[in-house]
Model the fold of this input.
Amino acid sequence: MAKEWILNQANMRWGLTKKNKVGPVSELIRRCSPKSLKDWEEYYYNNVYPKQHLEELGRRLYIKITEVCQAEIESITEEDCINFIINLVVNRTYDGYNSEIQTIYGQLQQSLGVKVEPASDEWDRGYNVDFFIKVKNRYIGLQIKPAGYAYITQIINELEFQKKTHEKFTAKYGGKVFYVISLKEGGEKRLSITPRLSKKSERKLRD
Done:
């Protein structure tokens, strides 16, 4: 397992099995529709790259691991490891918490005047809810979405699927789920609460 982890990490780092190195294999194997491993092997070596090409990529991976990775590992000191753990557990946790305070807790609680709490992993996975507001014996769900053109397609694609999970949340806990759009202005984050997009709004976004 340790050996496979090292090989996988090094391969991802240097991208030796990306499309530009080995071809679009997922697309190619569908095109080939092999009945056996041998069929696929022959197709690949005859139509994409010869076996020698993959062997050369393997040799490059070996060099990267035995030369580059080994040199980097040998340069790591005990102090580096101690500082890494402390930075990860203390410093970065605080930075993440402070960021949440400034965005979710700070802005939402201040503007709404109510307590905003992080949802459990169960609610995150089952209902696509990131935060919630408790009102008597009911709950209002909140889901955070980043703003910007690059995220529009992703949000639209998720809407139909999330609509069902949000309806389940409403049926069980009584409150609707709202999207909280995170906007960045001048290096600072600003939040905008919006209900589910209408079909008309979705079309405008697509256009």
Notes: The beta strands are 117-118, 131-135, 138-146, 174-185, 188-194. The chain has nine helices and five strands.
